[in-house]
TrEMBL record:
PANTHER family: C-TYPE POLYHEME CYTOCHROME OMCC, DISSIMILATORY SULFITE REDUCTASE SIRA
Domain Cytochrome c-552/4 per the UniProt entry, residue ranges: 140-179
Organism of derivation: Allomuricauda ruestringensis (strain DSM 13258 / CIP 107369 / LMG 19739 / B1) (Muricauda ruestringensis)
Coiled coil residues, start to end: none
Native organism taxonomy: Bacteria, Pseudomonadati, Bacteroidota, Flavobacteriia, Flavobacteriales
Pfam families: Cytochrome_C554
Name of the protein: C-type cytochrome
UniProt keyword terms in alphabetical order: Signal
UniProt xrefs under Gene3D superfamilies: Flavocytochrome C3, Chain A
């Protein structure tokens, strides 16, 4: 197990099982846990057999194929038919809710591959942002920081694509949110009752901002300005702004993209501004997959808005169990757009906005005197 930059050793989530079995069991079903993994027959096979495995581009044809125990991406020239490149699929990024991308190691250097999988059409696509020919995108910390628990770049500030391969902890696991916990595991082994001296942080005792900062690491846009150290240096309990900032600070709230900036959007909502306690975990249990559980989410609204009938005119409100479809509608993402096949048409993934408000025909109804102070 790797050692964090703060000097503490990771324990790995399997070591939590003896004492936190229920949390572990639901956590391994979450998209966080499955957000990255090593490619092998098991992590790829099921999907693989189902897809047609050719991707036709302007100059080249890309094929994903099984090669004994491994999976490879072969790129053929359309003019000569010759094989231009053969790369292993080493790492999967994405649980597959919206799609998956694949990374390859050349020695210790990490690159993204041309072919990605896109759930909306259940097929292969040209990776978002890739031109229509052979191209390789070096994968720095600025790409993987939100999809793995930990990785050690050869350069401390994380701006190269050269890694210590054995330092990778794939998936977004317990210790990305709780910090490296070998000390907690050692302390608790044989001592379940005496808490004096336990290093583990009780998150529900933190201030709202510090609690939010755990999720904000990855759900507040790119945060591409690294102010201090590197993207894996932050640990829970610290103030995230000390480490990383966004380029889009100061942008008007309506422009915040619905993809990846749930924090910016939520923070601009009246529910957040006018309540002292709302945080991401008010609605989301971080240890469970709750996608599609509308009943759960609507019940959260009613915890604070206990008599919704009184807030609505009868014409636009007729049931208690549909709050999110009107007040957190789905919008096409501005950044998660892909070009399908060889055409120039772009298709967007629909994302649930976290700017909670009154929408009519998908247009936010800005009421009087509501500036964007936050
Ligand atoms: C040998 C048993 C044991 C192991 C192994 C163990 N824990 Fe714990 N953990 C405990 C006990 C006991 C507590 C204290 C519970 C309490 O105070 O109610 C605790 C508390 C915690 C808390 C704080 C809970 C709170 O009240 O906020 C977290 C977070 C936590 N553990 C995470 C982990 C993670 C992650 C792992 C694996 C890396 C792990 N634990 C491994 C026994 C263990
Ligand atoms: C700042 C954090 C961040 C960075 C950096 C980032 N991602 Fe993501 N990525 C996310 C989040 C959050 C989601 C989930 C989408 C959402 O609902 O907002 C996601 C979703 C995805 C998905 C779809 C996953 C699924 O299961 O549906 C893929 C594939 C993906 N990212 C690949 C990449 C690649 C490749 C890079 C580097 C070029 C990258 N991401 C960089 C945060 C990030
Ligand atoms: C995405 C971030 C995230 C991941 C991953 C995560 N946790 Fe948590 N965990 C939290 C947060 C946030 C809280 C505080 C919950 C709250 O505020 O209600 C918490 C609370 C806890 C608690 C104390 C409260 C409780 O529910 O008993 C324990 C114990 C715990 N986590 C263990 C684990 C273990 C074990 C894993 C991995 C199997 C894990 N966590 C993975 C974010 C995470
Ligand atoms: C290390 C980066 C990281 C952290 C920390 C993190 N997330 Fe995520 N989160 C992601 C990525 C990446 C995805 C997309 C995973 C995928 O589908 O591959 C995601 C997906 C989600 C989803 C959608 C789940 C689904 O079923 O599609 C929710 C909800 C979510 N995160 C909430 C939270 C909350 C709440 C916290 C804080 C307690 C948190 N996240 C912390 C990176 C992170
Ligand atoms: C932690 C408590 C809390 C939760 C949970 C909560 N809200 Fe709110 N919400 C508030 C507060 C406080 C206000 C501001 C009320 C005011 O100032 O009149 C508000 C305002 C609103 C407004 C008016 C927004 C505007 O711009 O005029 C809407 C609509 C709304 N909430 C819908 C929802 C929905 C839908 C949910 C569930 C997804 C939800 N709320 C969950 C506390 C909450
Ligand atoms: C008032 C309730 C509420 C709060 C607070 C909240 N969310 Fe959500 N979130 C939702 C609902 C509802 C969905 C849609 C769930 C579904 O599609 O089944 C959602 C979906 C998501 C998704 C998946 C987006 C998509 O469309 O794929 C992510 C990621 C996410 N939330 C992250 C966060 C983060 C991070 C925070 C804190 C900054 C947060 N949420 C706070 C209610 C909330
Ligand atoms: C069919 C769409 C729709 C549904 C479903 C819906 N709302 Fe609304 N809501 C509106 C509209 C439109 C308004 C503006 C007031 C009006 O004209 O009724 C509103 C206003 C509100 C307000 C703000 C009142 C104010 O002016 O400050 C709150 C809070 C709210 N809704 C909460 C909820 C909750 C909680 C639910 C689920 C129980 C819900 N809404 C379901 C459309 C809807």
């Amino acid at each position: 197990m790797p050692v964090h930059y703060n000097g503490d050793r990771f324990a790995g989530s399997s070591s939590c099982i003896p004492c936190h079995k229920n949390i572990y069991q639901t956590h391994v079903e979450s998209s966080h846990y499955n957000s990255s993994t090593i490619v092998n027959g098991q992590t790829l096979k099921n999907h693989f057999d189902k897809w047609s495995n050719q991707l036709e581009l302007t100059d080249v044809e890309v094929e994903v194929a099984r090669d004994e125990q491994t999976y490879v991406q072969n790129t053929y020239s359309k003019t000569t038919g010759g094989l231009i490149d053969k790369s292993n699929l080493d790492v999967v990024i994405g649980s597959g809710v919206k799609g998956q991308s694949y990374l390859t190691f050349k020695g210790d250097s990490l690159f993204q591959l041309q072919a990605s999988y896109f759930r909306l059409i259940d097929s292969w696509i040209n990776s978002p942002g890739f031109p229509n020919h052979k191209y390789s995108r070096p994968v720095t910390d600025n790409c993987i920081k939100c999809h793995v628990t930990f990785a050690k770049n050869k350069n401390f500030i994380g701006n190269t694509n050269v890694y210590e391969r054995e330092s990778f902890m794939y998936g977004i696991d317990c210790e990305r949110c709780h910090g490296p916990l070998k000390k907690h595991v050692d302390f608790r082994s044989g001592n379940l009752t005496n808490s004096t001296g336990d290093v583990v942080i009780k998150i529900d005792t933190l201030s709202r901002q510090l609690k939010m900062d755990i999720c904000v690491q990855c759900h507040s846009g790119l945060r591409a300005i690294q102010v201090k150290d590197n993207p894996f240096s932050f640990v829970t309990g610290e103030r995230l702004d000390k480490y990383a900032k966004n380029y889009n600070f100061g942008r008007p709230e309506a422009e915040l993209d619905v993809h990846g900036n749930q924090y910016g959007l939520l923070k601009s909502s009246k529910c957040y501004k006018n309540s002292a306690t709302m945080s991401c975990t008010t609605c989301h249990d971080p240890h469970q997959n709750q996608r599609g559980n509308e009943e759960h989410f609507n019940s959260k609204c009613i915890e604070c808005h206990s008599t919704p009938e009184n807030l609505h005119t009868t014409s636009n409100f007729n049931s208690r169990d549909n709050c999110i479809s009107c007040h957190m509608p789905l919008f096409p993402s501005q950044t998660m757009k892909v070009k399908l096949g060889d055409t120039n048409d772009e298709t967007s993934v629909n994302i649930r906005t976290h700017l909670i408000g009154v929408y009519i025909d998908s247009i936010l109804q800005n009421k009087k005197n509501e500036g964007s102070k936050s």
